[in-house]
Amino acid sequence: MDLLQLKYFQTVARHEHMTRAANELHIAQPSLSKVITRLENDLGVPLFDRTGRQIKLNQFGKVYLNRVDRIFLELENGKRELANMLGNENTKISLAMNNLFSLSKILEGFLKLHPNTSFRQTIGSTNKMQQQLLDGYVDICISSPPIEGDGIECIPLITEEIFLIVPHGHKFADRSEIDLIEAANEQFINFKEGFGIRDLTDKLCLQAGFTPNIVFESDIALNLLDLVNNNLGIALLPILQLRDWSERIPVPLHIKDPICNRVIALSYVKDRHLPQTTKRFIEYIINNSKKFNINRENSPDGSSQ
Question: How far apart are CA 15 and CA 4, in angstroms?
Answer without folding.
Answer: 17
